C-alpha cells in the first residue's frame, strides 16, 4: 500500500490546520499537530500547538503543549507554555506547567496557576484512545 506505514516519527508535528477569518466551527477539535484559529470556535480543543490569531475567538476548554493567545479566549486553558499577546483577551483559568508570558496590554480576567510537574503521572493518550475504541467495539 502506498500510504500505509507502521513507523512513527517522534519529532514531527502531525499536520497543520487553519480556521480562516470569517469561518466558524462548533464542536470538539482533536489535532495531533498545530492549529491556528482566525475565525470562531465554540467547543473544546486538544492539540500539540494552538494559536488564536487577532480576530480569532475560542469559547471552550483548551489543552495543548503550547498555546499562543493573540485574539480572544473564553474558557480554561491548560498547557506547558502559554503566551498572551498585547491584544490578547482571556476570560477564564490559565493553567501552565513551564512558562507563562504576558505582553503589555493583554487583558486577563480569571485565575492563573502554575501546575506542578508530576513526573510519575504520564498518560499515553494513544494507548487510552486505543483501549477506549476496543472497549466500544466489544
Note the topology.
Layout: E1 16-19, E2 24-26, E3 29-37, E4 40-42, E5 45-52, E6 57-59, E7 62-69, E8 72-74, E9 77-84, E10 89-91, E11 94-102, E12 107-109, E13 112-114, H1 125-137
Parallel strand pairs: 1-3, 2-4, 3-5, 4-6, 5-7, 6-8, 7-9, 8-10, 9-11, 10-12, 11-13
Verbal overview:
It is built from one helix and 13 strands. The chain has one domain. The longest helix has 13 residues, at 125-137. The protein has one helix at 125-137, and strands at residues 16-19, 24-26, 29-37, 40-42, 45-52, 57-59, 62-69, 72-74, 77-84, 89-91, 94-102, 107-109, 112-114. Residues 1-10 have low confidence and may be disordered. 9% of the residues lie in helices and 49% in strands. The strands form two sheets. The chain has a seven-stranded parallel sheet with strand order 1-3-5-7-9-11-13, with no helix packed on it. By secondary structure, it is mainly beta.
What would you say about this model in short?
The protein is 9% helix and 49% strand. With 138 residues, it is mainly beta.
